[in-house]
Amino acid sequence: MPLQNFQYDTIMREYHRRQTENRRNLEERRAEAYARLPRLREIDQEVASLSARKARSLLNGAASGTADLKAAIALLGEERTALLLSNGYPADYLELSYTCPKCQDTGYIGSRKCICFKKAELELLYTQSNLKEIIKKENFDHFSFDYYSDTIKNEATGLSALETARRAYHTAKSFVEEFDRRFQNLFLYGNTGVGKTFLSHCIAKELLDTAHCVLYFSAFDLFDMLAQSAFSRNADTAYGEDLIFDCDLLIIDDLGTELTNSFVSSQLFLCINERIMRHKSTVISTNLELESFSETYSERTFSRIASNYQMVKLIGKDIRIQKIFLGGK
What we know:
Helix 1 packs across helix 2, helix 5 (about 160-175) packs parallel to helix 6 (about 195-210) and helix 7 (about 220-230) crosses helix 8. A five-stranded parallel β-sheet has the order 4-5-6-3-7, sandwiched between helices. With about 325 residues, it is an alpha/beta fold. Helix 9 (about 260-275) links the parallel strand 5 (about 250-255) and strand 6. It has twelve helices and seven strands.
């Protein structure tokens, strides 16, 4: 997925910083070597002078004599290398070094992104997602069905907690696999501690690893940012609001735990509606039952969700409490 302009600029600023730092390091090495071995400065000056004469000859169409200049430059280069090596310096001590030799710290090899740019892209997306550390542990590889009972039943569907969890897991997997092919949203609901947040983290990890822009917010933090944007309108909050509306995937966790008022309700509808209009996917998790959700945020908001989100319910005992009794396992 393409980076937004400010994300691209962030990465390119880092490349500019690297280039500046590497040039400064070269100047420091050069000053130190020249002070110790003055002949190095003389050699570099002679090479520069001969190179300029060669360039002028070529520009004037006088190819004759350039071979002698080339040979003279080569001899000076050999003397330079020998002088460096004999005094304990590496042969390339006075050459500009690069953090990434493949692209020479430009981020591109020709018109293609260098592998270092792709790594920087992933790192930036991970950092901005607010999930960098947690998804090292909470991902599909670590999802366990051991905490879901095969005796606890969902009265509405007749499915056990274990069967419900397996269905939710495969729904989340499908959501990731089809993410770039069709627009979809998920509404994860159920009691506290049944794996809703964990499952949203699993989705986030897969999409971040494929360079999608994913943002995670607790409901409290999301509405706090939207409030700052509504009442401040400075550059930082404005771009934050734009990213909330335009990122590839927005995860709103624990909806219903924040202090709900008319502002929160209106901002939730705005956020949901705007992302639907832009065909940008959203995952919402909440402990509220569907009836309570409708009462809390208005029928209009619930109707928008019901007609555009896949509803996924998880049931069972609180996994966090189970882990405490199992010694954190």
